[in-house]
Write a structure and sequence with these properties.
198 residues; single chain; Leucine-rich Repeat Variant; protein transport; 2 domains; ARM-like; mainly alpha; 70% helix; ARM-type_fold; Armadillo; Karyopherin alpha 1
Amino acid sequence: DCNILPPLLQLFSKQNRLTMTRNAVWALSNLCRGKSPPPEFAKVSPCLNVLSWLLFVSDTDVLADACWALSYLSDGPNDKIQAVIDAGVCRRLVELLMHNDYKVVSPALRAVGNIVTGDDIQTQVILNCSALQSLLHLLSSPKESIKKEACWTISNITAGNRAQIQTVIDANIFPALISILQTAEFRTRKEAAWAITN
């Protein structure tokens, strides 16, 4: 309510030290965060353009906070998901699923997972970015939380239309899900079961 976003976004238009950029994107991420009550989307959505180019900054902290902000903005009804898609971030989010730091992978995966909770057309945008190969790779992650989140994401894709389910089958993901059912922790197995039964 104090109209903090415009001056904060203004910081990104200047050449700043990395620490200033890190602090600004961290603040931006926190402004987008929260469920009870969630921030008013119309007030935080202007940051989508800035977030779209922050995804190309090489600094891990900046990337992680930009991805977290996008995950918060995409957590909700389809109109919010569509605004995130319209910002043109999907391809880069999918690319970041293969980042070498889990600090980036985790929020990128959450954002991708939130987007595929949308309608079939919104889910297809993520599929068109070749997400399934990255998700298949994440199913063998040594980090259990990444495996669980990848299963959850796939379960939302398999809740889609027949063509989308066939795409998951063709990507050879079901053998990996079956393996998870036999070996993973309970919460991860539960998500894998949803992905298979959808």
